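Ticket #4471: structure output looks truncated?

Reporter: J.K.
Steps to reproduce: submitted the chain below (280 residues) through the standard prediction queue, then opened the result file.
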Amino acid sequence: MIVDVHTHLPRNRQPAKSEKPKYYTARPGHPIDMDALCWDDHYKAMRNVDRAIVFGLSFGRDKHENDNVAEYVRMYGGKFIGFLTVDPNGEDALEEVERCVNELKLKGIKLGPAYQNFHPYSERACAIYSKAVDLGLPIIFHMGATPGKYDPMEYSYPLILEKVAIAFPDLKMVVAHMGHPWIPDTIILIRKHPNVYADISALFYRPWQFYNALVLANEYDQMHKLLLGSDWPVTTPEETINNLRRINLIVEGTNLPRIPERKIEEIINRDALEILGISP
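Returned output as attached by the reporter:
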């Protein structure tokens, strides 16, 4: 079972072209006009995976995006698992979680503390975690670097989530992007806490960092806690899988350690839905 745990749904249902494109440039040399993408682009990009988790782009600023995700999942069949996004600072955040689960049948939550300007261990955030435990919802956290000038990096430090893991031991959490650049901290975090995992999304295009991340995960015996993710449209599942399989090329002809091919294939074929407790 190949599962992409980290994909974003475009806002446009149909193809569109921006009069004044606003390019997303987090991936060097690969600018993306987010407004030009549509739902069919997402669907086609997922051809290499069996299942994919999908969520909106606004991090709770636009509640219509949760409705869009639910509609997309209904339109394109059982391949996709919809996650909601909610702003913990909003007065009706808990009600929105309930609505998305009971009415829209979404299966998890995506949060971005730096993007949404909330401390991951704040009272309002903890209320979301408590609700997630009650409803059996896993949470994917954007942790680590963000491109926004005013996104507070202190909220993206992965070790802040240790307080969450201790307070909510039954909450299944995924640290997106292995919390880069704090990858060693993320590996220690997932080693300590049974229900905390990390995804490898949007890392391969920094090949030296990506190689070292997997070497360290392997040395700490935590490769089993890594989940496949692409961060589409920043990358595709196909690119991510291909670059995983090429990772040892960077050290060919040297005495530097190699990533075991068997463990690479285990990441690619790991059933993340079972791990996160997500039912079809």
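Triage note (M.O.): checked the attachment and the full token line is present. The chain has one domain: 3-275.
Status: closed, working as intended.
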